[in-house]
Design brief:
OB fold (Dihydrolipoamide Acetyltransferase, E2P), single chain, 9 strands, mainly beta
């Protein structure tokens, strides 16, 4: 099942630079349905009194991400999966981009 996630009440900070998403068997970089290379972005998610570490897959290499970079995550979707006796949730986003500080009006 695919579940869209409202990210407006969550703050995200990277745990490091984006990494190529690699196929376990072939060791080749994974691509999306349009042939775009996929990347994993490890994030600290903080909001509503809780916090967690998640890995978000995104098409195209996000630029300007380093350790502890505040980011905006757009079009975040959680997908449940099951394989044999294992189950979990994976995350996919339309984009992950460095958040730029907003300037206050003077």
């Amino acid at each position: 099942m695919r579940l869209p996630i409202d990210t407006t009440a969550v703050n995200f900070v990277t745990a490091g630079a984006a990494e190529a998403a690699v196929d376990f068997d072939t060791k080749a970089q994974k691509t999306d349905e349009n042939g775009q290379p996929l990347f994993n972005v490890h994030l600290f998610a903080v909001g509503a009194g809780g916090r967690d570490v998640i890995t978000v897959k995104v098409a195209g290499e996000p630029k300007g991400l380093g350790e502890f970079t505040p980011v905006r995550v757009r079009e975040l979707v959680a997908t449940t999966w099951a394989m044999g006796d294992r189950a979990g949730v994976s995350f996919r986003a339309g984009s992950v981009e460095a958040a730029t500080p907003t300037r206050s009006a003077s």
